[in-house]
Design a protein that fits this description.
heterodimer, A: 110 residues, seven-stranded mixed beta sheet, four-stranded antiparallel beta sheet, globular, B: 118 residues, mainly beta, 11 strands, 0% helix
């Protein structure tokens, strides 16, 4: 059973920088897991921000960036804004076929 | 712009079958992978399974025995059937265009809430 781990909650000050991570309970995340990041504001449908580690979806501001940091995938928000306050999920492509979501990170901007 | 719209009964009785349809507009369903994803109230996202552009399917191991995902190309629709439902299957169900072997999803529907209750 593949378990994808994320910080349950993080906070950032307006204008600040925050990094969310996406790891595995056993092993390392690499680009071969094609990590993707999804934003979900309460009551709204999910929206994909980043796919294939570091490619931004159309219309996503460049303050959102994806990377591999050590043994995790990472989403960095530079210059956080109030409307970045959302839940963020990573999803990994596992064993060539399955998609596995992390438990999500609740980001507070305050 | 591709748009996805989920539809189906909002209430299903325990032990019965949940059936949902996702209608794709603004593009053809044929060349792509399509996934179903669900989110129980107050909880995170869970991948259910996909239908590929070659007609193959792959399902979450935890749901595999109860799921069927299919595509009707003539109607540009994706369907989900989940049998023997329980209250634990209460969730918002989303369809999404799946990027296949490149990972992730590029378009999402708005979701359909299905409640399992007698």
């Amino acid at each position: 059973q593949t378990v994808v781990t994320q910080e349950p909650s993080l906070s950032v000050s307006p204008g600040g920088t925050v990094t969310l991570t996406c790891g595995l309970s056993s092993g390392s995340v690499s680009a071969s897991f094609y990590p993707s990041w999804i934003q979900q504001t309460p009551g709204q449908a999910p929206r994909t921000l980043i796919y294939t580690t570091n490619s931004r979806s159309y219309g996503v501001p460049d303050r959102f960036s994806g990377s591999i940091l050590g043994n995790t995938a990472a989403l960095t928000i530079t210059g956080a804004q109030a409307d970045d306050e959302s839940d963020y999920y990573c999803v990994l492509y596992v064993r060539g076929a399955f998609r596995v979501f992390g438990g999500g990170t609740k980001l507070t901007v305050l | 712009q591709v748009q996805l719209q989920e539809s189906g009964p909002g209430l299903v009785k325990p032990s019965e079958t949940l059936s949902l349809t996702c209608t794709v507009s603004g593009g053809s369903i044929s060349p792509y992978y399509w996934s179903w994803i669900r989110q129980p109230p107050g909880k995170g996202l869970e991948w259910i399974g996909f239908f590929s552009n070659s007609g193959s399917t792959n399902y979450s191991p935890s749901l595999k025995s109860r799921i069927t995902i299919s595509v009707d190309k003539s109607k540009n629709q994706l369907t989900l059937k989940l049998i023997s439902v329980t209250a634990a299957d209460t969730a918002v169900y989303y369809c999404a265009r799946d990027r296949g072997s490149n990972g992730g999803f590029d378009f999402w529907g708005r979701g359909a809430l299905v409640t399992v209750s007698s």
